[in-house]
């Protein structure tokens, strides 16, 4: 829980000091897109892991 709060504080402090409107909103959108893609990769990896997917042909 402490790690999640630390990430939240870092996220808020990062965007607090950015002044340009376009850059600020672009970076926020990119952050959410990156988080969504990472969640998707994590979901697919865990799904393949739990459904006994063979990762190699050896």
> How large is the count of helical segments?
2
Mean pLDDT equals: 85
Query: Distance N terminus to C terminus?
Result: 40 Å
| Radius of gyration, whole Å | 17 Å
**Succession of helices and strands:** HH
Keywords: Membrane, Transmembrane, Transmembrane helix
InterPro entries: DUF6747 (IPR046635)
Pfam family, one: DUF6747
In words, what does this structure look like?
The protein has two helices and no strands. It has 58 residues and is mostly helical. The termini are far apart. The mean pLDDT is 85.
Give a quick precis of the structure.
With 58 residues, the protein is mainly alpha-helical.
Name a few traits of the molecule.
78% helix
Summarize the helices and strands and which ones pair or pack.
Blueprint (H helix, E strand, L loop, with lengths): L1 H15 L4 H30 L8
InterPro entries: DUF6747
Keywords: Membrane, Transmembrane, Transmembrane helix
Pfam family, one: DUF6747
